[in-house]
Write a structure and sequence with these properties.
Length: about 400
């Protein structure tokens, strides 16, 4: 009897997450064959020797006896209250613990928040390039992604007037990612103020992805969107994964501020979805209060002499001395969105380049088109390796690009 063909749901049509896609699977095959792969495709600090602060680990251990049972669907009170206190210190005064949802990382909260909000065909304004989970989650829940350009020639900073031109009666949400993944851009206050006024004017829900909020370089200023958005609903996403190097803890949070009275039904719907998954990881939640209230060790990594700062400097030096590469200096986060000068290699294709780099040089990067851009001359790397590894990686990249130029 012929086996029945089992097909994926049509809801997955158009859902992409290439950061863990075919290239990553091929890298795993090469590792199994004995090759050592330098993986720069994912911002995973623990894979590069970074450790979560010891105080956070101790807080989890000391509270394990309190972690056997399910918590409240929104999370444990000490974690939610710690998020409230952080928001208040930043000038966001209209939040209480009831406005905070704890999740299994920001990723889960992105999926839940859009699932509870979107009707079929609702439009979501997203930056291009974007963190692709936002586009995937929009598609998965019946929405229509509408990408507003963040152009390389403008330092990947969006133009509010270009965003305004994309608003239609179906537009429901605008997503802001600053500091930005994948570009490292940090949006200036006037740009964020213009986006806030626009969202208020059109009564758009603002979702602000601020998972990299304290990873900043050269005096860059992070401006929380919740300090600017007052007359419409604002949801701010944060978590332990990046600033606190605790990806595996799977702890994120979503805080609502601004105009909440008209959103009570939506917030109740979101709580219903959080109830269906019972609760998020309880042991990890016990690290939140210690993390947010303790020494902010990320600053030791981002200031001159710190590891992230030094790797960033090495990357900028390598790109600056390259015959082929260009980059807009990342001012935040832990990535660089590196470009290949289109005049240096004819018909350059980021996907083909990434595959050849993996097969021949054993370096895994994320092609730029993974981040919902139309141009094909970019790739994303993380700033997580040490500076020596980064110099080695860009040496391999330069060798490959020279060979590709000779073949072009």
């Amino acid at each position: 009897m012929k086996p029945r063909s089992i097909q994926p749901s049509s809801r997955l049509n158009g859902v992409k997450y290439e950061i863990r896609g075919p290239l990553a699977r091929r890298a795993l095959e090469l590792e199994k064959a004995g090759y050592e792969i330098i993986k720069l495709n994912i911002g995973n600090p623990g894979a590069f020797g970074f450790r979560a602060p010891e105080t956070m680990r101790l807080a989890m251990i000391e509270n394990l006896r309190e972690a056997d049972a399910y918590s409240h669907q929104k999370g444990i009170f000490p974690a939610r209250e710690a998020v409230v206190m952080q928001q208040q210190t930043r000038g966001v005064l209209d939040v209480t613990s009831d406005d905070v949802f704890m999740g299994n990382g920001v990723s889960e909260l992105i999926l839940l928040s859009l699932n509870a909000l979107l009707e079929q065909g609702d439009e979501v304004l997203l930056p291009s390039p974007d963190y692709p989970l936002w586009t995937a989650a929009t598609v998965l829940h019946g929405g229509k992604p509408v990408h507003y350009p963040c152009r390389p020639e403008n330092g990947f900073i969006p133009d509010p007037e270009e965003i305004r031109a994309l608003i239609t009666p179906r537009t429901k949400v605008i997503v802001v990612i600053s500091p930005n993944n994948p570009t490292g851009a940090v949006y200036p206050r006037p740009v964020l103020e213009a986006i806030a006024r626009m969202a208020e004017e059109h009564q758009l829900v603002v979702f602000s992805d601020e998972i990299y909020d304290q990873i900043l370089y050269d005096g860059a200023e992070h401006v929380p969107m919740a300090t600017l958005v007052k007359k419409t609903l604002c949801g701010t996403f944060g978590g332990l994964s990046k600033v606190y190097r605790a990806c595996g803890f799977r702890v994120g949070w979503l805080t609502f501020s601004g105009e909440k009275d008209g959103a009570r039904d939506y917030l109740a719907g979101l709580e219903l979805l959080t109830s269906l998954r019972l609760c998020s990881n309880v042991p990890g939640q016990w690290a939140v209060q210690t993390a947010l209230g303790g020494k902010q060790s990320i600053l030791d990594l981002t200031r001159p002499g710190g590891r992230l700062f030094q790797t960033r400097q090495t990357l900028l030096e390598c790109v600056g001395s390259s015959e082929f590469l260009e980059v807009e200096k990342p001012m935040g986060a832990m990535y660089a969105f590196v470009g290949v000068n289109p005049e240096s290699i004819a018909q350059f294709d980021d996907q083909k380049f990434a595959l050849e780099l993996l097969e021949r040089k054993h370096v895994l990067v994320a092609p730029g088109t993974s981040f919902n851009v139309a141009y094909k001359n970019r790739f994303r790397v993380t700033l997580l390796p040490d500076w020596e590894t980064t110099r080695e990686v860009f040496g391999r990249i330069e060798e490959l690009l020279k060979d590709m130029a000779a073949r072009a």
